[in-house]
Amino acid sequence: PKDLSTHGNVTVIDNLNDLPKSDLQDVVLGIDPSVTDWKLPNEILEQMKNLKGICTLSAWAYYIDIEYCKKREIIVCNTPEANSQSVAENAIWMMLSLARKLPIQIQDNFKTKIDSNHLQTEIAGKTMAVFGLGNIGKRIAKMGKGLGMKVIYWSPNSRSNDYEYVEFDEGIRSADYIFNCVEALKDTKNLFSGEKLALAKKEACFISVMGGMGWGPEDNEYLINSVNEGKLAGFAIENEHEPHFKMPPVANNANLFMPGAYAYYTHEAESLSWQKWIEAIIGIATQNYRHRVV
Length: 294
Prior knowledge:
- The chain is α/β, with parallel strands linked by helices.
- 30% of the residues lie in helices and 17% in strands.
- Strands 6-5-4-7-8-9-10 form a 7-stranded parallel sheet, with helices on both faces. It has a 3-stranded parallel sheet with strand order 1-2-3, with helices on both faces.
- Helix 4 (84-99) crosses helix 6 (137-146).
């Protein structure tokens, strides 16, 4: 891009093995994680002796070994909040799709059936529990309140006077719609274990906002089986799978919604992501750091 070329030589590659090695000076790596399957091995970075910084075209930067970068004093930047509104709106859409039994309607080719399995639910007056009140969670909470829902939340760090804070277990027990907005990190692995999810009432729906099957902090197999067995009213999650995740069978007429992984993919989010990405790359090149993770 022209904005970058004024600050140095720009090389565009589509394979990690083609990254410049130690013969170049002061390298800034701008990476689109969707091209590298959300992987950036340290072995690749080790070959780049003059690597000054990494800028990821994503808000989530933890596919990069942050501790390794700290040791080598490599700056890491991301594109925060660029797709937060897009992802939040997608989560509300998934909630409405479960409430209106869209997965079951699709299975029935949209033929109208008046029976208990097709009986739907209104949103107003229901309780939304947002777990993780960060950039995305706070937007979901705001929209839920605007829809006339009671909004409660649990968050490890953030607090807000706009909504009622509850303890983790109470949030699961009380919610009609559970939104997992917690980042997928080592510390959050199995946060929503089967034991915790068993606290949910059978009328509740679970919306996984942060990733596909096997990626997030929730027990996806337990959630699918609970919907199959009528222990949970619905489950929504993007259809991407962690490579080692084995998808359990899905029962007929299960209210399980697995749309494509387009939560981040809007005109507005794409434009803002590129803007922030270029800002971050130029920031490292000029030592005027923007959107710094470490």
